[in-house]
């Protein structure tokens, strides 16, 4: 007989460009991790850490929750934005009436759908560049 484990977290997915972040939001105090590394190690720059903490800062709940994140695809910038989107979605699920309006107003729940444009044939390696034609 299978034992049912009690799920004590809120799950959400955040996406940006080709990056996808699976976020688990836990109540209480703990260390937030990204792919098994502490956030400060994974995102070394102060600007990145400020962006990462934005959903918690908007709601003023930084000491009440922590997250574990698995992120894949894209570069560091896309991954960071995917994580912020996933954390915002998880917080909105956690307390719809209280958290959702503030996150929506800050623009953190909107999925940024802009992705890299594919390169076209005959453009010399770029998406929109045209090859120069001879003058005479």
From TrEMBL:
Keywords: Ribonucleoprotein, Ribosomal protein. GO terms for biological process: translation. Belongs to the universal ribosomal protein uS9 family. It comes from the Bacteria. Residues 116-136 have a biased composition (Basic residues). GO terms for molecular function: RNA binding; structural constituent of ribosome. Residues 110-136 are annotated as: Disordered. One of its GO terms (cellular component) is small ribosomal subunit. PROSITE patterns: RIBOSOMAL_S9 (PS00360). This is 30S ribosomal protein S9. Pfam families: Ribosomal_S9.
């Amino acid at each position: 007989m299978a034992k049912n484990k009690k799920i004590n977290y809120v799950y959400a997915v955040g996406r940006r460009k080709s990056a996808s972040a699976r976020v688990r939001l836990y109540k209480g105090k703990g260390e937030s991790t990204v792919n098994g590394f502490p956030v400060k190690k994974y995102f070394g720059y102060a600007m990145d850490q400020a962006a990462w903490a934005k959903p918690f800062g908007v709601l003023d709940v930084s000491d009440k929750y922590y997250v574990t994140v698995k992120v894949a695809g894209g570069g560091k910038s896309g991954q960071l934005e995917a994580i912020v989107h996933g954390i915002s979605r998880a917080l909105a699920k956690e307390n719809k009436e209280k958290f959702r309006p503030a996150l929506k107003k800050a623009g953190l729940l909107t999925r940024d759908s802009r992705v890299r444009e594919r390169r076209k044939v005959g453009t010399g390696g770029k998406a929109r560049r045209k090859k120069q034609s001879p003058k005479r």
